[in-house]
Amino acid sequence: MARAPAWSDTVVSTKGPIPLDWDKACAHLQRTDRVMRKLIKTHAGTRLQSRGDPFQTLARSIIGQQISVKAAQTVWDRLCAAVPQVAPEHLVGLDDEALRACGLSGRKAGYVRDLAVKFHAGEVHPDQWQEMPDEAIAAELLTIRGIGRWTADMFLIFHLMRPDVLPLGDLGLIKGVSQTYFAGEPVTQSEVREVAAAWAPWRSVGTWYIWRSLDPLPVAY
User: How confident is the model over 149-197, as pLDDT tens digits?
Assistant: First the structure.
């Protein structure tokens, strides 16, 4: 990404969480948006799926920053071999040397340790996230070193499966809307916001289908 998105670059629901009903979301999108109607038919049979636990999901996102998928997997495998389990209680005691031996840079070692410390000390509340509004969860995530707005958005969408997140700082979303709605002409975040108004309250699902228009194979975060 060209820059770290600011808080205003994201649109999230401020109400209490509602469950993601994929079929209901698709029915709404097909009814309100002709582009979505075509994309959903083109990519029928695939849908968003959550995986992993919150700590490991965030740790992997930090490890994978600015390196290839293959390199990130190698580092992750080494970290898994270095501790009984990749969990806060096992990582808080590791020093920089041990983390660097797994392949982490000094900067990422600090990020992973900060993540472990905040989870271990109860400074973030993953056991409450299912009941918290999106904005409150993102605010907690942004206190962790190495986690920016984009990572928080991806966590809300891919791990917690929140249905109404519109990550306006995501370049793929901007590019996809440009190609599918504006014939490739440059678009602003305001224009993307206007397009996505028809998707609410299922803007995460609309975003997912825009990503599929660029890459048919879903990416796991």
Answer: 989 999 999 899 999 999 999 999 999 999 999 999 999 999 999 999 9
| Residue-level length of the chain | 221
Pick from 146, 171, 195: which residue ends a domain? 146
Q: Which of 125, 210, 124, 129 is nearest to 167 (CA)?
A: 210
For residues 213 and 176, the answer to whether their CB atoms sit within 8 Å is: yes
pLDDT over threshold 70, residue 20: yes
Identify whether 21 is part of a domain: yes
Based on the fold, state whether residues 86 and 17 are members of the same structural domain: no
Distances (CA, A) of 188 to 9, 174, 178: 11, 8, 9
- pLDDT per residue as tens digits for the range 99-133: 999 999 999 999 999 999 999 999 999 999 999 99
Look at residue 129 in the predicted model and tell me its pLDDT: 95
CA distances from 20 to 9, 10, 17, 79, 202 (A): 22, 19, 9, 33, 8
**Does the bond joining 126 to the residue before it have cis omega, within 30 degrees of 0?**
no
**Dihedrals phi, psi of 10, to nearest 5 degrees:** -130, 140
